[in-house]
Amino acid sequence: MEIHWPLLLLILTPFLIGLSGLLSRNRGTLDALQCGQAGILVVSVILVAEEVLTSGPLSGLFYLHTDALSVWFSLILGIVGATGTLYAVGYVGEQLDRGAISFKRFQRFFILFDSYLAMMLLAVNVDNLGIMWIAIEGSTLLAALLIGFERNKGALEAGWKFVILSSVGIALALFGTILVYYASENVMGVSEEALRWGVLHQVADQLNPEAMKLAFLFALLGYGTKAGIAPMHTWLPDAHGEAPTPVSAMLSANMLTMAIYAILRFKILTDQAIGPLYTGNLLVGFGLFSVAISAIFLLTQQDFKRLFAYSSIEHMGIALVGFGLGGVIGVFGGLWHLLNHALAKSAAFYGAGLVLLRHEHKIVDQVPGLLHGIPLAGVTFLIAGLALAGMPLFGLFISEVAIATDAFTRHPFIAYGFLLVLTLAFVTLLYQILRMVLGTPVEQKVLKLGQRCRSFATVAIAVNLGALTCIGLYVPPGLSDLLGTILALFGIPGK
Amino acid sequence: MNWEGWLLTFGQIVLVLGFSPFLVGLIKKVKAHLQCRQGASMFQPYADLTKLFRKEVVYSETASWIFTVTPYILFSSTLAASLLIPTIFTPLPLNFAGNIVALVYLLALGTFFLILAGMDAGSAFGGMGSSREALIASLTEPALLLSLFAVAMTSGSANLSTIVYKTALLQDIVLDPPPHLMALVALWMVTAAETGRVPVDNPATHLELTMIHEAMILEYSGRYLALVEWAAGMKLMIFLSLVANLFAPWGIATNVSPGALGMGLVVYLGKIMGLAVIIAFLESMLAKLRLFRVTEFLGVAFILSVLAVVFFYILRVE
Amino acid sequence: MSLLSYFLVVTEHEKADVRFAGMFYLIMAHLGTAFILITFLIFYQTAGSFSFEDFRMQGHALPEGMKSLVFWAALIGFGAKAGIVPLYVWLPYAHPAAPSHVSALMSGVMIKTAIYGLFRVYWDFLPANIHENLPWWFGFTILVVGTVSALLGVMYALMEHDLKSLLAFHSVENIGIILMGLGAGMLFHSYGMDSLAVLGVIASLYHTLNHATFKALLFMGAGSLLYATHTRNMEEYGGLLKLMPWTGLFFLIGAVSISGLPPTNGFVSEWLVFQSLFLSFKEPSIFVELMLPIAAALLAFTGALALACFAKAFAISFLAQPRSNHARHAREVPLTMRAGMGMLAIMCVVLGLTPMVVIPLLDDVTFPLLDTTIRWKVLELGGWALAPVSREFASLSTPLLFLLLSGLIGLALILCWVIGGKLRARSYITWGCGLKANSRMEYTATGFVQPIKRVFSSLYQPTVKLEANLLEESRYFAKQRKFDFYIEPIFLKYLYNPVVEFFSTLAERFRMIQSGSLSLYLGYIFLTLILLLLFVI
Amino acid sequence: MSNLQITIGSQLVNLCSVLLLLTCFGIIAQRRLLACVDLFAIQSMFLAVMAALVAYLTDIHHIYVAAVLTIVIKVIILPRILKQVVRRLDVKRELALYVNIPTGLLICGALVILAFFITQPIVHLGFLLTRDSLAIALAIILIGFFIMVSRVKAITQVIGFLVMENGLFLGATAAAYGMPLIVELGIFFDVLVAGLIVGIYANQIQDTFSSVDTSHLKNLKE
Questions:
Q1: Mean pLDDT in each 10-residue stretch from start to end of chain A (495 residues)?
Q2: Predicted ipTM?
Q3: Which of C30, C31, C525 sits opposite A225 (nearest CB)?
Q4: Taking the domains of chain A in order of start, what are their residue ranges?
Q5: What separation in angstroms does the CA of B278 have from each of B271, B273, C52, D16?
Q6: Which residue of D has its CA nearest to C535?
C-alpha cells in the first residue's frame, strides 16, 4: 500500500501545525505557521485532485482512500479551510490585540481549530464507514469546544445545545452504520472489510433491502442533524450565531457539507440495494421542508449571523433536493451548489465578522449603510448576498436552475413548490442583506479595525469571492471531468 | 387629385367658413323669438367677427406663446376636421386623409391647446374652465367614437365619405332603425357636449362659476377671440352636418354635375338650418345641468352608443 | 438584467424610499424571472434543450393544457417585468426613484425586452407552424389585460403630481395599448385571418417603437425640470416655459405625441390599433365582435384621459406664474441635455409623418412570423396614405394632415391680415377679480383633476383629510386650512398588502418553533424518528 | 462447542439484554439523580458481562477488550465524573419532569413494541446467536433518547445519552460481535471525550448560570 504524500499532507498538516502551536511561544511564528498551513492545504488538495483525475482513486495507508467524490469535498474543505485559517489569524488576532483573550487561549484556539479542520478532511478521505463516523464525531466534539470558546452565556448555551443535539444525531448515525455492517454480514460474513465503503459498494446490490432502508433512515437523521436539515436544524442558528466568526464560517461551509457527504455515501449504497426512489423521496421531502422553514425564519431575523445560519439551512435543503431527484443535472446541481455555497457563505461570514468586530453587536437594523461604514464588509455582503440569493451570473443560480429543471422533468409539482419556496427565500434574504448594505450609517460608537486583521480578512475574502465569480462565469475543465466521474459513482452515466 | 378635387375642397372651405357664423346667428335669433324678443339680426356674428378682427389685442403678462398660437391651431385643426366631413358632395377628394378616428383626434388637438391656453393666463377661471373641459372631453370621446362606429359598421367602412356615399346610394340602410336611432341620440347628446350647448354648457352665460368653454377663452380678445369664436362656430357646423349626413344623406350629390351639386347645396343648407332651429328650441326648453350631472348625461350617451353597436350585431341579417 | 437595473435604480441609495423602490422592484422582477423560468422549463421538457431553435421546433408538441400553462406563466413572468396590471405596482416606485436618464432607459428599453419575450413565446415558440391557430382566448385575455392596464395606468397617472411617477404610470398605459394591438393580432390569428392579424401586430410593434421615443423624451424633460428646480413635485413648478423655452417646446411635443394627437407618431400607432379593433365585424364569434368595439371605446377613453393628464402636466409645470422659488430661479438646462431631447422630439414628428417608411420595415419583421405581408395593401397613393385593410374601409395620411394643418394656419394668418390689418397688441396683468393675480390664485394640479377624481371616486377611493382652525370671532373665516389627500392603488390595497401581511404573521407564528428549549428540540428529532419508523419503514 | 452450550449461551445473552432493558425502565422510573447514575453503572455492568459472554461463546478476543473498556469507562470513570458533577452542583433529585413517570413508562413500553416491530423483518438476517437482542438494542436507544427528551436537568440528559450509547454498543455486539477493533476503540475514545466535554460544559454552565437546569438555557431563540 503506497503512500500518497499530497493526501497524507492534506490530512496531517493541520494536526501537526495545530500541535506545534503548543511549542511556539511567540505570535509571529504562530501566524507564520497558520499561513503556511493555508498554503499547504490549497496546494496539496489541488495535487490530490490532479492525481485522482489522472490515475483513478487513491488508497493510502490506514484506510485512507480518495475517490472523485472525496476529492470534490476535499476541494471545498481544503480551500475554504485555508481561507478560514487566514481569516482566523486576523480575527482572533484582533481579539488578542484588544486583550479580549489571553495568548494562551489564542494558542488553544488554533490547536482546536486546526485539528477540527483535520478531522473534517479525514472524514471525507477514509474508506471505512466506522472511521468516517469517528472522524465526524471527533469534529463534532472539537466544534463543541470551539463554539463555547468565548465562554459568555450565549456561547455556552449554544455549545451545550450543539453538543447534546449533535451527539444524539451522531449516535443515531452510528446505529445506521451498525445496521449496514449487520446487513453486510450475510453477504460477506464477519470481516474487517465489511465496513469498507468500496467493498460494500461492490456487493451493495445484494444487501438486504429492509436493513438498508432502516440503516439509511438512521444515517439520514443522524448526519442530517449535523447537516442542519429541518427539523433537526435547531442547534444551527444558535451555534452559528454565538461561535467565534471564523468558526461559524467553518461550521456553515465545511461541517454541513461534510455531513451531506456522509449522507451521500449512505445514499449511494442504499440506492444500489433498493433503487433510488426511497432515498430520493426522503431527501426531497426534507430538502423542501428545510428551504421552507428557513425562508420563513429569514424574514423576521434580527441578527445577521443567525441570518446567514438560516440561509445555510436553506441551501443545504436545496442541495438535498438536487441529490434526491438524482437525475444527472440534479446531482450536478447539488454538488455545484455545495461548492458555491461554501465559498459564498464563508465569505459572508468573514464580512459579518468584520462588522461584529467593529460594532460589537449583531443587530441587523443597527448597521445600515455598510457600503459607507465598512466598505470591505459592505461589498462582501453585497456580492455574497446576491450570490446566496441565487442571482444570475453566480454558480448558485446555475445550480438552482439545474435542480429546478431536473425536478421539472420528473415531477413538475415539486418544481413549482421548489421555485415558490426559493422565491420566498430569495426575497427574504435579499431584503435583509440590502437593509444592511445600503443606506446611511447610524451614529453610534464603533471600534477601529486593526490593520493586520483587515489585511488578513481582505485576502481571505478576495480568494473566496474571486473563486466564486470565476467558477460562476467559467467552469474549469478539471472540475467538469471530476463531476463526470462523480456522476458515474452515483450510478448515472456521466455526461 | 384633379382640378375638380381642388375646386371641391376649396368650395368646402369657403362653405364652412362662410356659413358657420350664420348658424350661430340663426340659433340666437330663434332663441330670441322664443323668448319673445326681437333679437339681433342673423348676420350679426359676421359683424362681430370683423369688429373683433379689427380690435386691439390685450393679453396677459403671464401668458406665454402658447396663448398666442392656440387660436391659430384651434382654427386650423377645426377647419381641417371639417374637410373630412361630407357636406354637399361625397365622396370627398380628401376622403383618404383620415377616417372617424382622425376626425375625433383632430378635434382633440384643438381641445388640448384650448385647455392649455385656458391655464396660461394664470387666472382661476381659466383653470376652472380647462379642468371641466378636460373632464367633459374625456367623457365624450368614447361615446362619439362608438356612435360614429355604430353607423360605420352598417356600411362596412370607417371613412366618413364612404359611409355617406354608400348610405346615400342605397337608401334602405338608413332605415336599419334601432342601432341608428340610438346612435343618433347618442351623437346628439355628444354634440351638445362638444359644442358647449345646453344642457352641458351655456354659451350665453356670463356667470363665471357656470362657464366651461367661455371660461377658457375668458382672457382672449381681438382677433384671437375672433378666431376662437369662428372655430367654435365651425365645430358646431361639423357636428350638425355629421348628424345630418350620417343619418339622412338624402339628396347629397354623388357626382360632380352642377345640377347635383346645386341640389346638394340646397338640401344640405336646409337640413342643418333645421337642426340649428331644433337646437334653439331645445336650449330654450332645457336648463343647464350641474357639472356632476353632466357626467351622468354623457354616461347615458355612452351606454346608448354601446347599445347601438350591440343591436347592430344582434339584428344583423345574414 | 434585472440585477443591473436594480443597481441603476438604487444609485441614490441613501434615500429610504429609493431603497424601498429598489427592493420592491427587485422582488417583482425576480417573481417574473421565476415564472419565465417555468415557461422555459415547460419548453425544455419537450424540447430537451434550452436553445430557442429547439423551442421553435418542439414548442407545438406541447399538450393543450401545457400550452395554456405556458401562456399564463409567460404572461405573468414577462408581465411582471413589463408592468401590466396588476403586476405594475413596482413601476411607479422604481421609475421615479431612479435617476432620470435611467428611468428613460428603463421605460424606453427595458420594458420593451419583456414585450419582446411575449412576442417570442406567443408568436414563435407556441404555434407549430405559421398556420396553426392557438385558442382564441389567448388573444382575448391579452386584449383584456391590455385594456385594463391602459385604463388604470392613465387613471392613476392623472392623480399623480410627481412628474416622474406620472410618467411611470403612463408606461403602464402604453404597455396596455401595445398589448391591445398584440391581443387583437392574436385573436385574428386564432381565427386564421392572418392579414388582419399582421395589422394588429404591426400596430403594437409600431407603438412599442413610438413609446420608446416619446417616453424617453418626456423622462429627459422631467429630468431637466428636476435638474433646474430640484423638485419633482409639479405643484412647485409653473411659468417655466419662459425660463426654459427649449425644454418646454420639446416637452410639449412629447406630450402631444403621447396623447396620440395628430400629426405625431403616437397618433399613427394608436390609429392603427383602433383600426385593428374596428375590424371586429369580421370576427366569427359574436361575443368577440361585441368586445372589440368596446375595447376601442375604452381606448378612446384612455386617449382622452391621457390628453387631460398631459394638458395638466404641461400647463401646471410650464404655464402661468411660477408657484415656488424653485421654479422662479430655474434656468434653461445645458446644451447637451437640450440636444438629447431635441433629437427625440424630431424623431417623434418624423416617425409620425413617415409611416409609409416605417411600416414596411415592421412588415419585414412580422413576415417570418405569419408569412403574410400587408405592405402592398397598406400603402395607398404611392405610399402617401395608409389603408390597413382596404382603401374602402379606412385610410389615413399624416403627411397630408400635416400639410392641411400648416396650410390652414397660413390661411388663418392671411384672414387676420386681410380683415384685421396689422396686429395691434398690448399686454396687461391678468384680471384677478380686482386683486393682483398671483400664483396662489392659479388652479393647482390637484384642483385640475378634482372633477375627474370625484367622478371616478369609486375607483380611486381617495382618502381626504381637511382640517381648519377657525377664528374665534367668526367661524366663517379660518386662520389656516390644511388639506391633503392620497390615493392607494387599488391592487396594492387589496392584493399586495394582504399577501405581505400573511407572510409576516406566518413568520411571527413560526417563531415559537425555535423556542430555545433543548428538550423541545430533542423532541423534534425524536418525533421525526418515530414517525419515520412508523410510516416510512 | 456443543449445541446445548450455544442455546444456553444465547439465552444468557438474551437474559442480559433484557436486564439492560429493565435497568432502562428503572432509570425512567427513578427521580433521584445519584440513583440514576448508579443504575447506569449497573446497566453498563450487564453490558460488559454480556460482551464477555459473547466473547467466550464465540471466542473472538477483541470483544474481551471491548468488555474491559466498558467496565473501565462506563462503569468506573464516567459514573465518577457524573457523581462529582452531581455533588458539586448538589442537585439531589430531579423534581421537574416534562412527562410524569407513569406516562413515561407507558411510552417506553410503546417504544419497545415499536422496536420489535421495526426490527422484526431484519432479525432473521443475522445467523448469530445474539441476533435477537438487536430489537432490544433499538429499544434501549429509543428509550435513552426518550429520557433525554423528557428530563429537564442537564445531568439526566447526559445519562440518557449514555444509555443510548449502551444501546448502540449492545447493537454492535448483538448484530456483529462488535465492530472491528479499531472502530470499537475509536468509539470508546469518543464516548470518553464526549463525557469529559459534557462535564466541562456542565461546570462552566454552573459557573455562569449558577444552575444546570437546562430549562434556564432559553435565551437563544427567535
A1: 79 87 83 92 92 86 86 94 95 91 91 94 92 93 92 89 91 92 81 84 89 94 94 93 95 95 94 91 94 88 92 95 90 94 96 91 87 90 91 88 88 86 86 87 83 92 93 87 86 57
A2: 0.82
A3: C525
A4: 5-489
A5: 11, 9, 66, 118
A6: D118
